[in-house]
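Worked example 3 (structure in, sequence out).
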């Protein structure tokens, strides 16, 4: 491996990621909460749950499971119970697997055709460098490899696992608004599967409604700004050479990636910037992929890269947003997951950070025999915010001191375990 080349690749990628990170400043926005007065007549009796969770994606489902295992009564409301078909959350870092094991969910990457990933191959100007996950022989519970998979299959398994617990009520419904009384969120209004507008109340509401969150703006008073778009599709019935290595191509205008998300399914994705996204509907995007991106893909990967396009694969476009993780001044509520904070998809760490957040929140709630004390809940939420921030701060200097793969895969076993253990020593 040419170390100078590797260094350039890494610095380019790091600079790229850091650029976005630096832009993650506070945005402001508004979204109404429904006043308590408007719903007071709808309220029938006391809260039937300790926690309401909005959204049964990766975060909502894992949190429901974790809190229910601690004996909490959880009401989780999800607008669409079908298996999602999404182009996100497909690559879980070794640190994410570690977090899953801490949540007793490690088995849930089994049986979904998840693929083992041991590192990445980076391509630039006809050269190739390989970066593997550093082997950490210091107490990591299993081999420090990643997994890549169809996100929807994983989400569906998490939902099944959570709803198998007797104290979890997983209900189909679309949450419309949060119910607020004097600065305290008391519950939600939602439309249930029968089409009825109804309400649910609990001492703690967790908003986990993903990157298109409608509720975030009413809590954090900021907007998310779109920085770029990920454009992708799946090439089917094929396998990459060295499938355990994610392929990262330093193309223009930004990176292109190929990685195995099933034994015969390859995710092909590249990044474009706003005002420069060709139309999918009129065929411009297909031409752009063929004429602009494909020629930059190394010839040994090109056939697979074009396979999906030639076979008419469904092309998806997902926004990359900048949004800061700010604490709401409303009580009785917390925002998690993509609704709370997003990192650039190129570092594929969203699920890992989210699962870590869930662990921190769970441990902070554990000492409370019930969640009825609003003041205590507020203290937990404040501590949660401080602890997760601390964990991130502890991580950054470590990354700067480490080598290639540390920077490309920022939260590996040793670094993350250290910060996590320190942060959760309550
Ligand atoms: C393009 C892209 C690629 C990414 N790739 C990776 C990756 O490779 N690895 C990684 O670790 N992270 C990745 N991430 C981040 C990762 O996807 C997220 O961290 C993770 O999926 C967030 O989970 P979540 O529970 O917050 O949201 P989701 O998993 O999106 O779940 C939100 C849920 O809320 C439901 N919902 C929404 N609104 C309502 C409502 N009003 N009422 C009821 N239900 C509602 C939705 O239907 C959905 O089921 C990526 C992100 C993006 C944008």
């Amino acid at each position: 491996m040419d170390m100078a080349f590797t260094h350039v690749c890494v610095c380019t990628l790091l600079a790229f990621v850091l650029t976005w990170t630096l832009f993650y400043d506070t945005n402001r926005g508004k979204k109404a909460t429904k006043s308590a007065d408007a719903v007071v007549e709808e309220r029938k009796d006391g809260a039937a749950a300790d926690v309401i969770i909005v959204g049964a994606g990766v975060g909502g489902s894992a949190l429901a499971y974790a809190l229910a295992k601690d004996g909490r009564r959880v009401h989780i409301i999800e607008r669409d119970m079908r298996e999602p078909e999404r182009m996100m959350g497909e690559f879980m870092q070794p640190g994410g697997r570690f977090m899953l094991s801490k949540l007793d969910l490690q088995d849930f990457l089994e049986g979904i055709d998840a693929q083992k990933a041991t590192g990445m191959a980076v391509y630039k100007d006809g050269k190739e460098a390989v970066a593997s996950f550093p082997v950490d022989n210091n107490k990591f519970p299993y081999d420090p490899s990643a997994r890549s998979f169809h996100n929807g299959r994983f989400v569906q398994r998490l939902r099944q696992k959570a709803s198998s617990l007797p104290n979890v009520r997983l209900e189909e419904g679309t949450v419309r608004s949060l119910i607020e009384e004097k600065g305290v969120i008391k519950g939600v209004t939602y439309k249930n599967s029968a089409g009825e507008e109804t309400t649910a109340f609990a001492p703690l509401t967790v908003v986990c409604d993903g990157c298109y969150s409608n509720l975030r703006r009413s809590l954090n008073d900021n907007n998310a700004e779109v920085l770029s778009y990920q454009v992708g599709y799946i090439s089917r019935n094929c396998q990459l050479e060295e499938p355990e290595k994610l392929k990262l191509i330093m193309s223009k205008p930004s990176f292109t990636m190929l990685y195995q998300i099933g034994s015969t399914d390859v995710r092909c994705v590249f990044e474009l910037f706003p005002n420069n996204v060709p139309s999918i509907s009129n065929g411009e995007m297909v031409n752009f992929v063929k004429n602009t991106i494909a020629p930059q893909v190394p010839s040994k990967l090109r056939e697979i890269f074009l396979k999906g396009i030639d076979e008419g694969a469904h092309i998806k476009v997902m926004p990359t947003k900048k949004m800061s993780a700010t604490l709401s001044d409303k009580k009785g509520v917390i925002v998690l997951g993509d609704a709370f904070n997003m990192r650039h998809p190129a570092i594929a760490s969203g699920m890992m950070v989210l699962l870590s957040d869930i662990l921190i929140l769970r441990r902070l709630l554990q000492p409370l025999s019930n969640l009825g004390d609003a003041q205590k809940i507020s203290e937990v939420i404040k501590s949660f915010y401080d602890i997760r921030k601390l964990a991130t701060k502890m991580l950054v200097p470590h990354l700067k001191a480490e080598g290639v793969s540390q920077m490309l895969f920022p939260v590996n076993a040793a670094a993350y375990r250290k910060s996590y253990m320190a942060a959760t020593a309550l």
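Notes: The chain has two domains: 3-24+224-321, 34-114+146-223+323-423. The first strand starts at residue 34 and ends at 35.
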